[in-house]
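Here is one chain, start to finish.
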Amino acid sequence: MRRLSIVLVLLAGVLAGAAVLLPRLLDADTLRTMLIVAARHHTGRELTVTGDIHFAVLPRPALVLPRLTLADAAGFGPEPFASIDGARINLRLWPLLRGRLAIASVAVDRPQLRLTVDAGGHANWADLLPAPKPAAGVPPSSGGAGIVERLAGRVQVGQLALHDADVLWTDRRSGRWARLRDLDLSLQGLDPAEPLPLAARGVLEAGDPPRSAEFDLAASVRPGRDGIWRAPDLRIDAVLGGAPLREPLPLRLAAEAGLDPARSRLRLRRLRLAGESLQARGELTAARGDDAVPVVGAQLQIERLDARALAGRLGVALATADPAALTQASGDIELGIRGGDINIARLDLSVDDAHWRGAARLGLPDRSARFALEADRLDLDRYLPVVPAPSATAPGSAQTASPAGLLRRLARLDLDGTLDVAALTVRGLRLEQVALGVRAADGRVALQALRAGLYGGRAEATVQADARVADPALHFKLTVEDAAAGPLLAALTGRETLRGRLALACEATAAVASGAALLRSLQGTARLDLHDGVLEGINVDRAICLARGAGGRGKSAEACDASADTRIAALHMTGPISDGVWRSDELILEQQRRQAGHVYRLTGAGTLDLPSGALDYRLTAAAVRRDGATAVAQEAPLLVRVQGRPGEVRVWPQLGEAARRRQDQGVPARGGATGTRRSPGPSSR
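Its structure:
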């Protein structure tokens, strides 16, 4: 008990001594005058002290400052340039009792700073910066080293803390702004010769609509002889929010940082960025351009990127056919950002199972893009939305979800680029060595010189779309040479009803729609040539043979061709397309018969309804035997009606009509021809 009493007495004596000595060492009125004069001398601005400067003894000796405001530069308005609501400077007791001033910590309440660039490009902090002093023959870094050496070991402040700080930057020329609010900052051991442990947390806001980043920062900062502040262990945990994010996005950044205040330049080396949908590493440099526009350059190695999850954060629902598409991406990217312009100088990415290379330039303000990209494979069926059944499409659905709406959105962009894909799959159609040029501007979209390998052959197309009119329209040209017809039709229709080597030429216009609506709007012309093929479900030879046998023409059903398909030596169709109906007035087909050198040569006209697949042809079939370079007619020609749809085709030989024609021509009404006659060889078209 006696010892406790002695300690209390000593403590009371120390506090009493401090209460007596403190006002003698630090006179409040003198400090007020010193602060005002120092501010006027060093800044040329007036400092306003609102309230009394006083001293506190408990809980430790301290100098307490009231509200301070520093006037703004001339021409920037009456609001203060900087202010604090108050500050407490805690002093070390034992040095104070021995007549020396030592600061244990400084705590500043609600410091506020207004940084403004006016319409003429003048900054309200420019007059506070030291004037540049050219030093001939002296390295630029010597000045920084001298400051550090003079301050080292002389400024001893245990801790600096800012509570609820607020910094607002505004550029009146562009309307851009940024704000750092709710900032709590702590610096330990303010000795310029030693690393400074730094901890900060707050909210950074910018843009219109506003974007935000709530962050928690930790680092050890050291000023260098070259004037660059370095933090080898920078760590930032941030939660990004605001437009365009629909949900907060947490991220963690770790790097070796270097800040050059004189050049307004920040460099992050050994950068590692991690989040729920992203993991990357590399280097990043950010600087303030000559026109005050932020400039960023980065070389990143993306270790993991889930674009689908990131799109969900952005409020974009990716309605792809494959729900696992766009979930795996990795590779290298080198890019530069200046304001709203993004230049991807090098792209080398693996996206799902495709490898992409190339370069691109994106202009966000003017919605422009320039690109040259190539990929080893691309399965668009994984990424395109599932085509709903007609009954599933609700009437009056949003126009932006329709092909016309998508085209209008695309036509508002400024696009110019090329795309090369070694293997492309779209709606089941497989293309190889695809070369495509894309153009979009002023309400028009063009796919120019689309060239590709197509099932052993070649295809070339040009497509132009005009979105400036009320009903956007397509105009296209398509040529196909020597393609395998079977797999081509199987990809387009799901049925391999026609096989052989195919050539096609088509030029048409259509309304921008999908499915049957687009086909129904087709207007144009088309030509088709096929050789060495098979047409499933139609056999004119068998149909005529069976009909003659049933009609007592001397033909037995057993002797007829057993195949239900037509073996095509050559097929030629040409004619106009109107409202989705292709009319061929020059159909020529040569069907191989069972006997070698014997063919049916069919000629005539008819229609093919492209949306439904319904066909209706009236043909004249002539049995021909080839004898060297000549063709000899073996039977009188027959009229044949072909109707139906793929898989449900009916062939109707019109034997009665043929008999009537023979009677009119004086030919006996029997199955074979009365004689032979030479007929032209097969058409070469």
